[in-house]
Amino acid sequence: MTSSPxxxxxxxxxxxxxxxxxxxxxxxxxxxxxxxxFDPWSPSFVVDPYPAYDVLREAGRAHWFARSGQWLxxxxxxxxxxxxxxxxxxxxxxxxxxxxFGRQAPxxxxxxxxxxxxxxxxxxxxxxxxxxxxxxxxxxxxxxxEDMVPTVRRLAAELIGPLRADGGGDLLARVAExxxxxxxxxxxxxxxxxxxxxxxxSAAICGMYELDPPPETARRAVRxxxxxxxxxxxxxxxxxxxxxxxxxxxxxxxxxxxDQLTEQEMVSTVVLLLNAGHEATVNxxxxxxxxxxxxxxxxRALYERPDLLPGAIEEMLRYDTPLQLFERWVLDDIxxxxxxxxxxxxxxxxxxxxxxxxxxxxxxxxxxxxRPAADNKHVSFGAGIHYCLGAPLARVxxxxxxxxxxxxxxxxxxxxxxxxxxxxVIRGPREMLVTW
Length: 436
Description:
The chain is an alpha+beta fold.
């Protein structure tokens, strides 16, 4: 969740906290600022943020954005480097109290969400992060992902077959959303009758990852956190009594030199696996197909050369990034492009901008499913110690859904340009109507 800065009532909220001025593109106290091009609450910006990213990259390497109280970082080299820089962190509580860091503690009524989110490895730093990740990796293994491949393909075919038989429908609601939920539910051993609960819980919790979420979003996230946590605690208790071959049983059994996950760590891990993996896969599916529909020559090439699919998936992840922004707290002063960003600040690493940086990608605004792997080292799964643990599973799911549609349902086409959801950070269409 993005936190608003604690602003002294006597200061201008536009003031650059590193210089005490209200900067513009030229570093002067007044005038137009490059960050004015960045408007994540604008529907038109959400649909196409890439021209604004061009403005930000051209104007410099770090831009103060007063509306969210963050420093925008648009260049690939800086985003990639800061993801690995231990002077930044997803949390600061391993080193500072809220007061020491100049931040306010979350409201007490948010506690169900903050505990659930705060005990997940995505929002922890070492040594807690490394400990939990080692234990989770003992359960969520490459072999487990490999063993899921036939199941993922079966689930994809079961969803796509009826859509094709009906002559079309909403690709988002009928394939893109249910597939990753079904996959993670299978892995976790969640009974089929309960699986419809997962998507609403996930959507409500993920609303807190947008910039400055409103109170009603927070209330929904708190309710979902309470309900999801209670459900998982019951499921964990059942697996303790009667272990199975599922991931929850493996998490219970995982140990490292006598250390094991606490119940809260298991609950937070399961929610993270659902939320992080599900949201990225859903939006990559719809954004990927949208890119193919808008570039019919690329779609024809993929029909003719199915072997191009692995590279095409990487290009989809780069070209229209499902997670546009990732945040880090500045734990020690850093300098980016000559700009001092002091301890206590928050940086917004712009993944979508980094993935379109011409300094790293040749002709970055071109969608090219044959882009060489050496020219496609995107940051869509992050980097450093927080690199996405579920990336291999996401790639399996995407290969299954795209591969099945290309093979078994050729000729799919877009009915109309899709409407978009309001969210910018986790970004994608609200629906995608297709036909044959």
